[in-house]
Amino acid sequence: MADDKDNLDPMENGQDDALQDVLPVSGMYENWFLDYASYVILERAVPSIVDGFKPVQRRIMHAMRDMDDGRFHKVANIIGQTMQYHPHGDASIGDAIVNMGQKNLLIETQGNWGDIRTGDSAAAPRYIEARLSKFALDVVFNSQTTEWQLSYDGRKKEPVNLPVKFPLLLAQGAEGIAVGLSTKILPHNFCELLQASIDLLKGKKVNVLPDFPTGGTADFSDYNEGLRGGKVRVRARIEELDKKTLIIKDIPFSTTTTSLIDSILKANDKGKIKVKKVIDNTARDVEIEVHISAGQSPDVVIDALYAFTDCEVSISPNACVIIEDKPRFISVNEILGICNDQTVDLLTRELEIRRGELLEKILFSSLEKIFIENRIYRDIEECETWEAVLETIDKGLDPFKPQFYREITQDDIIRLTEIKIKRISKFDSFKADELMKKLQDELEQVEYNLANITEFAITYYKNLLEKYGKGRERKTEIKAFDTIQATVVAANNQKLYVNYKEGFLGYGLKKGEQVEMVCECSDLDDIIVFRADGIMIVTRIQEKVFVGKNILYADVFLRGDDRTVYNMVYLDGKTGRSMAKRFQVGGVTRDREYDLTKGHKGSKMLYFAARPNGESEIVTVKLTSGCKARIKVFDFDFDDLDIKGRGAGGNILTKYPVRNITFKRLGESSLGGIDIWYDGAVGRLNTEERGKKLGTFLGDDSILVLFKDGNYELTTYELTNRYEPDKILFIDKFSPDKVVSAVYYDGAQKTHFVKRFKVETTTIGKKFNFISEARGSYLVVASTDKEPQVELELKEGRSKETVVYDIDMLIDVRGWKAVGNKLNPDKKIVNVRLLASKPENDMDGKDSRGDEGSDEGGEDPDKEQMGLF
Questions:
Q1: Can 223 be counted among the known catalytic residues?
Q2: DSSP structure class, residue 637
Q3: Number of domains in the chain
């Protein structure tokens, strides 16, 4: 065996060694994938924190700076120039240029660059032109503070990062998908970013919020500083043109007019909303007309548009940036802080460079003056060699060297030899001193700025704000949104049919002998069912579903309904007693059967009724003729029972057998009226005690709304009503006996009027103008107090005085169309305030005082009502 081993082929040993060096395929894939992922993250998809650019954007900016001559260049030419630095195709570069150009910050555009609102694409690169904006030239470039590297082919130099002195990343926003991660940084307002940067330098805490170029309104309550897990709700701005037409003015960010209209048409096709037609009139401004179907409430349709279409979208930010060659997830406020520090650092470096330049200029100017005034240039006439010339000049400068900030080098001396005779002959000592003084003054200013770099940075930001801030005001309105229940605003696109005997229900049943239509409903609704065996079940509406035989009652189930009360009598199978109960249905589990009796065998329903407003009722109970009871027919009032939960056993109605129970008379609501509050933050009514309590409502009660433009309107107290808080001056429960006292400004006569009137109209949902219709007229203050008072601030010349009037003493109650009386016409009124009055103890226990108004920045009405004025 030993001989065999000794005689092994050496080639075979070599093959074994080679096999040991082979890398498994799995290992290669692992390394290659990591390399690829790193490349995509660092070089393509995620922006750098240093300048806010992705590589392609940085290379575009660098190429455009190389080409910049103040004139526009064809985008096709810019793409070609950029390809010297960017190792990818022309399409990716062209798309990036268009994207940057549409943001209207760094690139000035010419030609058809598309429209982010409509989704129209830009024209071909050979047809459109671009150049760097003045802002970009001011804040993005500085070759002296730029770190350079070789381009991908080694032929050119390109910047590692551009020295951007502005939070550009937050201003433009960024979005990209890499391998294993993504980034989504929303755009922020230019002016707000500069102001926030100033506040940071002053040591204040800041919280910047996005601002979208498409406008609209947004709720940033869950923004979470742009971190993962946050959410921004963005809504289109929808206005009611009339009762049949809605106008969409702004669209949510990330949508287009085309996609929004498509979403409306799809929702209409599915029956979620009911519209006749949608017309796109978008030109310079977005304008989409939505014509709603007859019988549809505009308020409900607006809510449905938000609930079922792209009129409301939810955007999930995910701030990821490259910091020191690694992706990091940080908040937008942290990004702003880092950008701020970088700007201060860049400004410091620029000042230090400028200081060095000034020192060199002052040094050489001094050398030049010494060289000429001391006629050192004459001493070199006798020199025969170059070395002797340099030595002679150096020797002549020896007495003056201590005054310089650094040693005099041979290069400095050589520069002196290059001064032309013409310059020496025309040398003016006075002008030289003046120049040196200017340089010295500038040097002192630079030194001061370096010593006070924070103050200098604040001034820098203020200059940017003043120079470029005009026209860049916030476009997106910040609002708190209400939560819209889809089931509440969904259009009734189906009909509920019920087969009571066989136990089937749904919108797919055919109406026949045993099938009845109960009501209209939507395909999002739940249905509540009560059976004769005492079982209740809630199920989702379907085309056809079996819920159990002998259905007594079926209807749409409203979750959270605290008004509907069910009156019921059932036979207890164990004791033979008839039990009566009143109950409400709160939270339930869908498709679970709930037994409303005591659960004994043989139990069954004897009487059942659903009362939508908690009404009690009186029923007639008839006992069997063979029972031992003396009185076999009697009335029972459900009002004698307390309203309890569905699991309650109930009270004994009778221990004798019951033949039948019939309805006799409906009683009053046991629940009383419903308390309604108005939330001025979102312009909605609620029952959750948010905002101002309007009162307790019942039946045909209504709400009185007085608008700043001088109109009043009566509305219902439906919770689906929508109000625009910025247009409302006064809102409260309407009482026809209350007198409205108002002060308004007449735009035609340029004076104030006072009037008192009762609302005589009863039309719901129609506005009536009760002040002058002249242009510039508006309502100043309004109240329904019995004895309202106003405080007027009057001005005559330079003197001012304040007077208080009882409005009820100034004018009698007249019709709502009356003009009223002039209010102190002899002096100029500069301010009108409604004074606090003692709350009236009306039936709701509410003060019916209106909101305060003023001509020129009146006081805070909330403080006034608290007695601070």
A1: no
A2: E
A3: 5
Residue 867 CA to residue 869 CA, distance in Å, equals 6
Sign of the Cα torsion 582, 587, 590, 591 reads negative
Q: Are residues 754 and 832 in the same domain?
A: yes
**Cα torsion for 798, 804, 808, 813, to the nearest 10°?**
20
CA-nearest of 680, 682, 646 to 567 is 646
Mean pLDDT on 116-120: 89
Q: How many H-runs (helices) and E-runs (strands) does the chain carry?
A: 21, 48
**Least confident range of 487-501, 731-745, 844-858:** 844-858
Range of the domain at 407: 335-468
Q: How far apart are CA 525 and CA 518, in angstroms?
A: 14
The active-site residue out of 85, 127, 152, 468 is 127
> Residue 58 has which token pair?
């940085």
635 and 532 in a single domain? The answer is yes
C-alpha–C-alpha distance, residues 855 and 824, integer Å: 15
Residues 726, 816, single domain; the answer is: yes
- Please check whether residue 787 is in contact with residue 808, taking contact to mean a CB–CB distance below 8 angstroms: yes
End-to-end CA distance of the chain: 114
pLDDT tens digit sequence for 734-762: 999 999 999 999 999 888 999 999 999 98
End of a domain among 163, 182, 209? 163
Same structural domain, 663 and 710: no
Q: DSSP letter at 482? A: P
Do residues 286 and 265 both lie within one domain?
Answer: yes
How wide is the angle at C-alpha 347 spanned by C-alphas 458 and 340, nearest 5°? 55
Q: Tell me, yes or no, if the pTM score tops 0.90.
A: no
- How far apart CA 172 and CA 189 sit, in angstroms, is 9
As given in the structure block, the two tokens for residue 33 are: 């994938």
Q: Which of 718, 811, 806, 793 is nearest to 756 (CA)?
A: 811
Using the predicted structure, report yes or no on whether residue 163 has a pLDDT greater than 60: yes
Residue 272 lies in a domain: yes
